[in-house]
Model the fold of this input.
Amino acid sequence: MSLPAVLLRLLASLAFALLATAHAGAQSNEPGCRPEMASLGLPIHRVQLAKDEARLTFVGHATFLIETPGGVKIATDYNDYVRPPVTPDIATMNKAHSTHYSNRPDPGIKQVLRGWDPEGKGAAHHDVTLGDVRVRNVPTNIRTYEGGTDYDGNSIFVFEIGDLCIAHLGHLHHPLEPGHLRALGRVDIVLFPVDGSYTLDQAGMLDVLKSIQARVMIPMHFFGGGTLSRFLARTQDLWPVERREQPTITLSKATLPAKPTVIVLPGQ
Done:
């Protein structure tokens, strides 16, 4: 083969490699994903959701990554210790403890929603729509370190995705009153703390779940298997329990269980 022919073949091979690399880069540049995540071996390519689905991943503690069919990513109780492997579009926070908020949120977050009024003038009020999700809050009170009450110091955040309504109870410290329940409306999926000490006691949390009547109940904030087991022992005569092996679950209105069910995702 002549030298010019060899050079032409080398140039063609190089051009093909460059095109393949550019195509792969475009495929991995999913909105909200940081490019450096690819080097960590973290999942970037995700199966696309149907228009009536939502995907929840239990990141840990009180943080879930909620993903919508339109690609919007939400991190609940976003903080500096437990974060999802992607930059969310929306971050919700509660101020009960530093593991539930951040003063240094990622600048790539489009909406940072604090469950309290940073100026201390009253309750926080959020009702925002981004893409195919609506996010709103229901203010709640929290205990102070001195034993008093910080009125409207936290919030329950509600996420409306298609026909699904997801409520994250945050760092709930007290039973829900009729006004809270009216503000919540119908809830299909509830994410709730079960530690029984830093938040509401376990018996009180059972009463909250009975009043909400969600079809799917996912526990969080349980500081190890013992605390979670004690809570599940209280539910054995009330609701069936499903334990999943993976921290991610995809749900839609059509796939909700026929009767209220506790679904345990691995984490802490």
User: Anything to note?
Assistant: The chain is about 20% helix and 30% strand. The chain has one domain: 49-264. Confidence is low (pLDDT under 50) at residues 1-45. The two ends are 65 Å apart (CA to CA).
